[in-house]
Amino acid sequence: MSEANGKVYSLLFAGVGGQGVLLxxxxxxxxxxxxxxxxxxTEVHGVSQRGGSVxxxxxxxxxxxxxxxxxxxxxxxxxxxxxxxxxxxxxxxRQHGVILVNQHEIIPGSVKDAERDYPHGSxxxxxxxxxWVLAMExxxxxxxxxxxxxxxxxMLGAVSTFLPLxxxxxxxxxxxxxxxxxxxxNLQAFAAGRExxxx
Length: 199
Prior knowledge:
It is built from 8 helices and 7 strands. The protein is globular, with a radius of gyration of 16 Å. The longest helix has 19 residues, at 180-198. The relative contact order is 0.17. It is α/β, with parallel strands linked by helices and 199 residues long. Strands 1, 2, 3, 4, 5, 6 and 7 form a 7-stranded mixed beta sheet that branches. α1 (21-34) packs parallel to α6, α1 (21-34) packs across α7 (167-177) and α2 (82-88) packs parallel to α4 (122-128).
């Protein structure tokens, strides 16, 4: 384990049911465990099977007492969908945190006038509120790699550039969690996310 002066890293993953919010959190937790950190993760909150809003928290450090991220204290808020990034942006640390926004909009089909009322431009609005925002075209990158469902792993590649966990540890965690028949494209998606964040 690399020494981080007792710092606890706090992440919140948010998205819409079916986007792979839990996978992102699980791989992050696995990577942190592999490097010897104490890790806590919440259960998924939301309607994950129905396309509803979903969130899960991951915290790791030398010693972690609670899995729940306090609003205003997250090092990373990872929004797999633009509105969900906006919904949970207040968890981000304005001074030191980053809000990662997948520039992908899912209009809720069950909400009256959702198309009209959907708040487009979420990343720009969050930025205007004083947060550090990294807007990603994760869904587009994943589609170009052959499967838009890998947007969560593209986002995970971006996440990996902000945390004190080695690249090889991330790859090991992905290999552990992703079935072999899907592994290679997901490793490519992870690499694409790292590259996009670095740019």
